[in-house]
Predict the 3D structure of the following.
Amino acid sequence: MKPESLYLTIINNLCDGVYFVDTERRITFWNKAAEDITGYKEEEIVGHFCQDNLLNHIDRDGQPLCVVGCPLYTTIIDGIQRQAKVYLRHKDGHRVPVLVNIFPFVENDKIIGAIEIFTPSSPIVYEDTLIENLSYLAMHDQLTGAANRRKMESYIQYRLHEMKRFQSKFCIIFWDLDDFSNFNNTYGHEAGDEVLKSVTKSISRSARKNDLIGRWGGEEFIGVYEIQNDYEATLIAEKIRVLVAGSGILYKGENLSVTASFGVTVAREDDTIETVVERADVLMYQSKKNNKNCVTSDI
């Protein structure tokens, strides 16, 4: 028997799931145990990318790993072996706790992918709805339903990694509702909460697949938008500005609305979460000084 056939026979008779991804996280190998543990056959998985989220890995806190920090992706970048306890989603919908071991695959001193070996860590399975609800609560603002600051920071970090590896452009748009303290003092916090929800709903419905909008704190919001050209960032911000000004509520027989001031910047190769957000924040405050309800950009 040839060594390749012998190795393949051994791998396909392991009790542990094994799969291989290339540097773009495309799955190119899926063993028999992986089929048994996940319910997905080889032909249903091979060729898909990890970020397609068929397995939708989450950690013990309910955080989606493809968004907040994929250990497989990190190993491809730095070549460090990793181990983690995660929950994968079975094809039937329930959650399966597994222990994963991740190794870089190196050929001619170059990382060409990674191998993940995963083992069920308990016979217990968890209903998908329970874990999904915990994940939602951990990563979303309770009032508006938008992503919370924790999720936004994680997503920005993810996009920075993607930009450095694949040169994918994105911009940060930071906005703050104008004179919102006065609004609350005049109409009450209940009306203020309803306006926050109305504004968030209007903006979220206009977001694309790879965009993410979140509440940064109080009346401050932040958006991460995928772009092809720098000039698109300002156009997106202007669109949001119009949406905010055009959103409102009918409260005790009165139509109420607010405006917002915006700061826009495009992420750079040397950026961190702190630098790119601070730049957008400073630009937003320039809009506050320029009669509010406007967009200021460094593009």
Notes: The chain has a mean pLDDT of 89.
